[in-house]
Amino acid sequence: MSLLTGQTAVITGGAQGLGYAIAERFVSEGARVVLGDLNLEATQAAAERLGGEKVAIAVQCNVVNLAEVTALIDTAVQRFGGLDIMVNNAGITRDATLRKMTEEQFDEVIAVHLRGTWNGTKAAAAVMRENKRGVIINMSSISGKVGLVGQTNYSAAKAGIVGLTKAAAKELAYLGIRVNAIQPGLIRSAMTEALPQHIWDQKVSEVPMGRAGEPDEVAKVALFLASDLSSYMTGTTLEVTGGRYV
Protein backbone atom coordinates (compact mmCIF):
# COMPACT_ATOMS: atom_id res chain seq x y z
CA MET A 1 0.00 0.00 0.00
CA SER A 2 1.26 3.49 -0.84
CA LEU A 3 1.83 6.11 1.85
CA LEU A 4 -1.30 8.16 1.10
CA THR A 5 -3.72 5.56 -0.26
CA GLY A 6 -7.32 6.72 0.04
CA GLN A 7 -6.44 10.16 1.37
CA THR A 8 -7.51 13.54 0.04
CA ALA A 9 -5.24 16.58 -0.12
CA VAL A 10 -5.94 20.22 -0.93
CA ILE A 11 -2.98 22.16 -2.33
CA THR A 12 -3.07 25.92 -2.89
CA GLY A 13 -0.88 27.31 -5.64
CA GLY A 14 -1.10 23.84 -7.15
CA ALA A 15 -1.04 24.72 -10.84
CA GLN A 16 2.74 24.96 -11.11
CA GLY A 17 6.07 24.96 -9.30
CA LEU A 18 6.31 23.44 -5.84
CA GLY A 19 2.55 23.07 -5.51
CA TYR A 20 2.32 20.96 -8.65
CA ALA A 21 5.38 18.90 -7.66
CA ILE A 22 3.75 18.15 -4.31
CA ALA A 23 0.48 17.21 -6.01
CA GLU A 24 2.33 14.91 -8.40
CA ARG A 25 4.15 13.17 -5.55
CA PHE A 26 0.94 12.81 -3.50
CA VAL A 27 -0.95 11.29 -6.44
CA SER A 28 1.89 8.83 -7.03
CA GLU A 29 1.42 7.70 -3.41
CA GLY A 30 -2.29 7.07 -3.78
CA ALA A 31 -3.86 10.41 -2.83
CA ARG A 32 -6.57 12.37 -4.57
CA VAL A 33 -5.87 16.08 -4.82
CA VAL A 34 -7.80 19.30 -5.19
CA LEU A 35 -5.72 22.08 -6.68
CA GLY A 36 -6.54 25.70 -5.89
CA ASP A 37 -5.03 28.53 -7.93
CA LEU A 38 -5.95 31.90 -9.42
CA ASN A 39 -5.53 30.81 -13.05
CA LEU A 40 -8.33 28.31 -13.61
CA GLU A 41 -7.21 27.30 -17.10
CA ALA A 42 -3.67 26.48 -15.90
CA THR A 43 -5.08 24.65 -12.87
CA GLN A 44 -7.39 22.55 -15.04
CA ALA A 45 -4.47 21.65 -17.30
CA ALA A 46 -2.43 20.62 -14.24
CA ALA A 47 -5.29 18.45 -12.97
CA GLU A 48 -5.53 16.74 -16.35
CA ARG A 49 -1.80 15.98 -16.33
CA LEU A 50 -2.20 14.41 -12.92
CA GLY A 51 -4.82 11.98 -14.19
CA GLY A 52 -8.09 13.83 -14.54
CA GLU A 53 -11.13 14.14 -12.31
CA LYS A 54 -10.87 10.72 -10.70
CA VAL A 55 -7.71 11.82 -8.90
CA ALA A 56 -7.36 15.59 -9.40
CA ILE A 57 -9.80 18.49 -9.43
CA ALA A 58 -9.10 22.13 -10.28
CA VAL A 59 -10.74 25.02 -8.42
CA GLN A 60 -10.18 28.73 -8.95
CA CYS A 61 -9.23 30.20 -5.59
CA ASN A 62 -7.81 33.43 -4.21
CA VAL A 63 -6.32 32.44 -0.85
CA VAL A 64 -6.70 35.97 0.50
CA ASN A 65 -10.47 35.37 0.55
CA LEU A 66 -11.54 33.03 3.38
CA ALA A 67 -14.84 32.23 1.65
CA GLU A 68 -12.99 31.04 -1.46
CA VAL A 69 -10.61 28.90 0.61
CA THR A 70 -13.58 27.41 2.46
CA ALA A 71 -15.25 26.64 -0.89
CA LEU A 72 -12.03 24.99 -2.08
CA ILE A 73 -12.03 22.69 0.93
CA ASP A 74 -15.76 22.05 0.60
CA THR A 75 -15.09 20.83 -2.95
CA ALA A 76 -12.66 18.22 -1.60
CA VAL A 77 -15.22 17.03 0.95
CA GLN A 78 -18.04 16.90 -1.58
CA ARG A 79 -16.11 15.25 -4.41
CA PHE A 80 -13.76 12.94 -2.50
CA GLY A 81 -15.53 12.49 0.83
CA GLY A 82 -13.20 14.30 3.21
CA LEU A 83 -10.02 16.21 3.88
CA ASP A 84 -6.87 14.57 5.23
CA ILE A 85 -4.08 16.93 4.14
CA MET A 86 -3.95 20.69 3.60
CA VAL A 87 -0.91 22.25 1.92
CA ASN A 88 -0.79 26.04 2.15
CA ASN A 89 1.63 26.74 -0.66
CA ALA A 90 0.25 29.69 -2.67
CA GLY A 91 2.62 32.63 -2.85
CA ILE A 92 3.84 35.65 -4.77
CA THR A 93 6.87 37.92 -4.76
CA ARG A 94 7.01 41.68 -5.04
CA ASP A 95 10.71 42.24 -4.40
CA ALA A 96 12.10 45.72 -3.87
CA THR A 97 14.44 47.41 -1.44
CA LEU A 98 12.87 48.95 1.64
CA ARG A 99 13.36 52.42 0.15
CA LYS A 100 11.54 51.56 -3.08
CA MET A 101 8.91 49.10 -1.86
CA THR A 102 5.37 50.47 -1.89
CA GLU A 103 2.72 49.86 0.74
CA GLU A 104 0.76 47.93 -1.88
CA GLN A 105 3.72 45.62 -2.57
CA PHE A 106 4.14 44.99 1.14
CA ASP A 107 0.44 44.40 1.77
CA GLU A 108 0.01 42.10 -1.25
CA VAL A 109 2.76 39.72 -0.15
CA ILE A 110 1.66 39.68 3.49
CA ALA A 111 -1.92 39.01 2.43
CA VAL A 112 -1.21 36.13 0.06
CA HIS A 113 1.37 34.36 2.20
CA LEU A 114 0.39 35.07 5.78
CA ARG A 115 -3.35 35.67 5.61
CA GLY A 116 -3.61 32.99 2.93
CA THR A 117 -1.90 30.46 5.18
CA TRP A 118 -4.06 31.50 8.11
CA ASN A 119 -7.20 31.12 5.97
CA GLY A 120 -6.13 27.67 4.83
CA THR A 121 -5.20 26.53 8.33
CA LYS A 122 -8.44 27.85 9.82
CA ALA A 123 -10.70 26.36 7.15
CA ALA A 124 -8.93 23.00 7.08
CA ALA A 125 -8.94 22.68 10.86
CA ALA A 126 -12.70 23.25 10.94
CA VAL A 127 -13.17 20.10 8.83
CA MET A 128 -10.38 18.02 10.34
CA ARG A 129 -11.51 18.56 13.93
CA GLU A 130 -14.70 16.60 13.17
CA ASN A 131 -12.59 13.56 12.20
CA LYS A 132 -10.06 14.02 15.04
CA ARG A 133 -7.22 13.74 12.55
CA GLY A 134 -5.49 15.60 9.75
CA VAL A 135 -2.25 17.16 8.57
CA ILE A 136 -1.57 20.80 7.67
CA ILE A 137 1.66 21.73 5.88
CA ASN A 138 2.61 25.39 5.55
CA MET A 139 5.20 26.60 3.05
CA SER A 140 7.67 29.01 4.60
CA SER A 141 11.07 29.87 3.10
CA ILE A 142 14.68 30.18 4.14
CA SER A 143 14.07 33.91 3.56
CA GLY A 144 11.92 33.80 6.70
CA LYS A 145 14.86 32.47 8.70
CA VAL A 146 17.69 34.73 7.57
CA GLY A 147 16.03 37.69 5.84
CA LEU A 148 17.06 38.45 2.27
CA VAL A 149 17.82 41.82 0.70
CA GLY A 150 14.85 43.17 -1.24
CA GLN A 151 12.41 40.93 0.60
CA THR A 152 11.29 42.77 3.72
CA ASN A 153 7.71 41.84 2.76
CA TYR A 154 8.46 38.22 1.81
CA SER A 155 10.84 37.55 4.72
CA ALA A 156 8.32 38.98 7.18
CA ALA A 157 5.51 36.85 5.75
CA LYS A 158 7.57 33.66 5.70
CA ALA A 159 8.82 34.21 9.26
CA GLY A 160 5.23 34.82 10.29
CA ILE A 161 4.21 31.49 8.81
CA VAL A 162 6.63 29.74 11.18
CA GLY A 163 5.05 31.47 14.17
CA LEU A 164 1.56 30.71 12.89
CA THR A 165 2.51 27.06 12.42
CA LYS A 166 3.82 26.71 15.98
CA ALA A 167 0.78 28.39 17.53
CA ALA A 168 -1.69 26.37 15.45
CA ALA A 169 0.18 23.14 16.23
CA LYS A 170 -0.29 23.78 19.96
CA GLU A 171 -3.96 24.64 19.55
CA LEU A 172 -4.84 21.67 17.35
CA ALA A 173 -2.70 18.83 18.75
CA TYR A 174 -5.39 17.58 21.12
CA LEU A 175 -7.69 17.15 18.12
CA GLY A 176 -5.22 14.85 16.35
CA ILE A 177 -4.28 17.53 13.82
CA ARG A 178 -0.57 17.99 13.09
CA VAL A 179 0.75 21.29 11.71
CA ASN A 180 4.27 21.61 10.30
CA ALA A 181 6.18 23.92 7.97
CA ILE A 182 8.79 23.57 5.23
CA GLN A 183 11.50 26.15 4.49
CA PRO A 184 12.87 25.60 0.97
CA GLY A 185 16.10 27.25 -0.09
CA LEU A 186 17.29 27.69 -3.66
CA ILE A 187 14.99 25.43 -5.70
CA ARG A 188 15.14 25.16 -9.48
CA SER A 189 12.03 26.69 -11.03
CA ALA A 190 10.98 28.98 -13.87
CA MET A 191 11.31 31.92 -11.51
CA THR A 192 14.79 31.12 -10.20
CA GLU A 193 16.10 30.09 -13.62
CA ALA A 194 15.13 33.55 -14.90
CA LEU A 195 17.70 35.10 -12.56
CA PRO A 196 20.76 36.68 -14.20
CA GLN A 197 23.56 34.12 -14.43
CA HIS A 198 25.89 35.94 -12.04
CA ILE A 199 23.18 36.08 -9.35
CA TRP A 200 22.35 32.40 -9.87
CA ASP A 201 26.02 31.46 -9.58
CA GLN A 202 26.39 33.52 -6.42
CA LYS A 203 23.39 31.83 -4.81
CA VAL A 204 24.60 28.35 -5.77
CA SER A 205 28.02 29.16 -4.27
CA GLU A 206 26.31 29.61 -0.88
CA VAL A 207 24.96 26.03 -0.93
CA PRO A 208 27.32 23.50 0.70
CA MET A 209 25.91 20.74 -1.52
CA GLY A 210 26.93 22.81 -4.54
CA ARG A 211 23.67 22.79 -6.46
CA ALA A 212 20.09 24.02 -6.44
CA GLY A 213 17.35 21.71 -5.23
CA GLU A 214 14.69 20.19 -7.45
CA PRO A 215 10.95 20.69 -6.82
CA ASP A 216 10.47 16.99 -6.14
CA GLU A 217 13.05 17.18 -3.33
CA VAL A 218 10.68 19.55 -1.55
CA ALA A 219 7.70 17.39 -2.51
CA LYS A 220 9.26 14.34 -0.87
CA VAL A 221 9.60 16.25 2.41
CA ALA A 222 5.94 17.27 2.10
CA LEU A 223 5.09 13.59 1.59
CA PHE A 224 7.00 12.70 4.76
CA LEU A 225 5.07 15.31 6.75
CA ALA A 226 1.76 14.28 5.20
CA SER A 227 2.23 10.59 5.96
CA ASP A 228 2.34 8.58 9.15
CA LEU A 229 6.13 8.48 8.84
CA SER A 230 6.03 11.77 10.78
CA SER A 231 3.22 10.78 13.16
CA TYR A 232 4.94 12.22 16.26
CA MET A 233 5.91 15.55 14.67
CA THR A 234 4.00 18.79 15.00
CA GLY A 235 5.04 22.44 15.22
CA THR A 236 8.31 21.75 13.40
CA THR A 237 9.97 23.58 10.53
CA LEU A 238 12.05 21.48 8.15
CA GLU A 239 14.72 23.19 6.04
CA VAL A 240 15.25 21.90 2.50
CA THR A 241 18.26 23.98 1.53
CA GLY A 242 21.24 21.77 0.70
CA GLY A 243 22.87 23.16 3.84
CA ARG A 244 22.53 26.83 2.92
CA TYR A 245 22.32 29.13 5.97
CA VAL A 246 22.65 26.36 8.54
UniProtKB/TrEMBL annotation:
Instruction: Name the domain of life this protein comes from.
Output: Bacteria
Q: Does the entry feature the keyword ATP-binding, yes or no?
A: no
- Oxidoreductase found in the keyword field: yes
> Could you mention a single GO BP entry for this protein?
fatty acid elongation
Write out the entry's keywords from A to Z: Oxidoreductase
* A GO MF term: oxidoreductase activity, acting on the CH-OH group of donors, NAD or NADP as acceptor
Q: Which InterPro entries match?
A: KR_dom, NAD(P)-bd_dom_sf, Sc_DH/Rdtase_CS, SDR_fam
Ketoreductase domain span: 7-190
Entry-linked Pfam families: adh_short_C2
Q: Which NCBIfam families match?
A: PRK05653.1-3, PRK07231.1, PRK12826.1-2
Q: Which family does it belong to?
A: Belongs to the short-chain dehydrogenases/reductases (SDR) family.
| Protein name, as recorded | Short chain dehydrogenase family protein
